[in-house]
Amino acid sequence: MKELELKYGCNPNQKPSSIYMDEGELPLTVLNGRPGYINFMDALNSWQLVKVLKKATGIAAAASFKHVSPAGVALGTPLTEVEKKIYFADGCDTSPIACAYIKARGADRLCSYGDWAALSEVCDAATARYIAGEVSDGVIAPGYTDEALEILKTKRKGGYNVVQIDPDYEPSPIECRHIYGITFKQGYNNYEINEELLNNIVTENKTLTQEAKNDLLISLITLKYTQSNSVCYVKNGQTIGVGAGQQSRIHCTRLAGNKADNWMLRQHPKTLNLPFLDDIRRAERDNAIDVYISDEYEDVLAEGTWQTIFKTKPEALTAEEKKAWIATNTGVSVGSDAFFPFGDNVERARKSGVEYIVQPGGSIRDDNVIATCNKYGIVMAFTGMRLFHH
Question: E strand or H helix at 72, and its extent?
């Protein structure tokens, strides 16, 4: 098929709408549902990410996308018992690709609500069953087992979007887009991200573990497909905070760092043991947990709304408890799609357990940024390559 007509574009008033190839056939097939314009933007951006990440690491990869940026990205390494609990995966079958999606979805569950899922591997039944229990718009993968496809076809009253893409498809070396009737043309961003990019370590501490290398690669590849400006925090093979589309670098660093802190607070014993009512759905739990670990929780308690969510009134997490728990986070990696202009980015990242940084370098204040890293023993590598994505 050369062209696929869509219901409408970004908004219902934007018609007509379609995706098509200037030459050849579309490299994808809609197996179920009717994906829209934004769905396909998410699908094609997320597919590129997981394909590149799988190539760079050799491990199954998954992404959870919303509005053309990843809410979460992860490799298919085994889940810990705590991860199973905070990602609602207790009792789930956990194949490598299922683990990858569970962690990608779990990185920022609020932002992943209504996501588009991308899988580097054939979707199996374990992954399909987990997706079926989440609020999601669609999935893209290189294939689906018969059982997985049947499971997915039952979702959203049979209307769940399932897209299969040719894993061997390679895009044209030149890409075009139209803005306000004017055509833009540029070379496709085929810049390869691999471990060699981490060789230029500019700090006094030059010790990079293999785990840290993998996490730094995840951060860079995530940033390559995240709307800029962007900063990404990674730990144990998954993103834990993505700050996308900010005009200021420090705002990216703060946004992503706050998300990383929330990821950590979801693992606090008080949070893990919240006494939810038995019939509370996952999305409602996510919202309640987000309020519980925020500074708004005391206001919610004062309003007396806890009775609709919890069996008993939970004891609040104090500011001191939050600070102490976040301080236990260590071994975090962070990447930036453009240089850090000031050391304040390092100062903020350190508060969320960052010990490894990768960025292009090239600021007139690189010496200040390097000195700030040295003050805390942080390892930092310069890649020399910006990763803007718009």
Answer: strand 69-75
Could you confirm whether 66 is annotated as catalytic?
yes
Q: Are residues 153 and 221 in the same domain?
A: no
Catalytic annotation, pick one of 157, 178, 185, 390: 390
Under 8 Å between Cβ of 153 and 159: no
- Active site includes 178? no
Catalytic residue among 39, 214, 229, 345: 229
Query: Is residue 199 annotated as a catalytic residue, yes or no?
Result: no
Quote the domain boundaries for residue 294: 269-316
Are residue 68 and residue 208 in the same domain, yes or no?
Answer: no
* Catalytic residue, candidates 55, 67, 85, 270: 67
**Catalytic residue flag (residue 390):** yes
Whether residue 96 is found in the same domain as residue 148: yes
Distance CA(322)–CA(227), nearest Å, equals: 30
Closest to 243 in 3D by CA, of 351, 235, 354, 254:
254
Give the number of other Cβ atoms within 10 Å of residue 222's Cβ: 29
Q: Is the pTM of this model over 0.90?
A: yes
Q: Which residue, 49, 129, 61, 70, is CA-closest to 97?
A: 61
State the Cα–Cα distance between residues 253 and 259, nearest whole angstrom. Answer: 10
Of the residues 66, 84, 155, 268, which is catalytic? Answer: 66
Number of domains in the chain: 3
DSSP state of 195: G
The pLDDT tens digits for 183-237 are 999 999 999 999 999 999 999 999 999 999 999 999 999 999 999 999 999 999 9
Alpha-carbon gap, residue 21 to 34, rounded angstroms: 18
